[in-house]
Each structure stands twice: as structure tokens, then as C-alpha cells.
Specification:
single chain; 2 domains; 31% helix; alpha/beta; three-stranded parallel sheet
Length: 171
């Protein structure tokens, strides 16, 4: 008895969304404040402001920067904010914090500009396997927008997925 094999996944209305596609292709680098501190520990305001004023910010153009301090120095908040302001003045994407926080911001920015109406009323699967590490909080950013449109949301691969959300709308 020969039965025809039917690929139900290929024939379904299931849409796949890959969160990795929301990560922009941009180099991510750190800006370590410790290099501008006296003995890499103490902030001297006059010297610090002079370094900010004379620094060549353009070398960070077309990069995404996370502003950090890699040692245990006590740094006033205004120092981080001042550096962030300079990056903003030069239209350089930046965050104060870790590389993970930067990745979350980059994903959030991309998700917020995406038109999710293409998933209206459709079952959607969020791809579970990626080449890069995706911060878990990036999934909540995606879900916030996707749940407004999708009929149902699953996580994983089409052959093996976990249900996450099902709309209460019958439409």
C-alpha cells in the first residue's frame, strides 16, 4: 500500500519570523570611560571635559557603541550622559551599559519600525534557532507588537514548536 507523503508544514498558512533579522548589521564596540580617568580610577572634571571636547568622535561613525567602565571606579552619572550626548551629536547609536543592553536597544528600534500588519490573523512561529545569541528580553519586545496582529504565536521550528499565544478573537 503506497500513500502519498504530504508536507503539511509547506501547505499551512504558518508564517515564520526570525528575530535575528531584526539585528542590524552594524559593528558593536565599547567606549571605556576608565581610559579618561586619573590613574583609571578618579574622575577629574576639568580634565574629563577637556578630553570630551578634544576627542575625535567621528571614528565611531557607522558603529553602535555601549558606554561602560571596566573597573570599579565611582563615576558620576553626568559623565556617562555627557559622553552619550556627544555620540548623539555625531549621530552615533549608543547606550550607557553593556553590549547586551545595546543589542536590546538595536532590536527594539528595528521592531518599532516594522509593519506587523502582514501577520494579521495568521499563525506565526518565532524561529527558535539562531546563529547569534539573542537576549531574552528581545522576544518580549517582539511579542508586544506581534500579539496585536497574529492569530497564534509559537516558538521553535515548524516541525517542533511550543505554543506561546492564541488570540481570543474568533475572526
Amino acid at each position: 500500500m503506497s500513500q502519498k507523503i504530504i508536507n503539511r508544514v509547506a501547505n499551512s498558512k504558518l508564517e515564520t519570523i526570525d528575530l535575528e533579522l531584526f539585528f542590524p548589521e552594524i559593528e558593536r564596540i565599547s567606549f571605556d570611560i576608565k581610559l579618561w580617568l586619573k590613574d583609571e580610577l578618579f574622575l577629574v572634571e576639568k580634565d574629563f571635559r577637556e578630553k570630551v571636547k578634544n576627542f575625535d568622535w567621528k571614528k565611531y561613525k557607522n558603529k553602535a557603541v555601549y558606554i561602560t567602565c571596566s573597573n570599579d571606579a565611582i563615576i558620576p552619572d553626568w559623565a556617562y550622559i555627557l559622553i552619550s550626548s556627544q555620540f548623539n551629536n555625531h549621530e552615533i547609536r549608543n547606550v550607557i551599559g553593556s553590549k547586551e543592553i545595546l543589542n536590546i536597544k538595536l532590536v527594539t528600534d528595528m521592531v518599532n519600525t516594522f509593519n506587523f500588519s502582514i501577520y494579521k490573523g495568521k499563525p506565526v512561529i518565532i524561529k527558535g534557532c539562531s546563529d547569534q545569541k539573542i537576549p531574552l528580553s528581545a522576544y518580549s519586545v517582539l511579542l508586544e507588537k506581534l500579539q496585536l496582529e497574529a492569530k497564534s504565536i509559537m516558538f521553535g521550528e515548524a516541525c517542533s514548536s511550543v505554543p506561546i499565544y492564541k488570540s481570543s478573537n474568533k475572526s
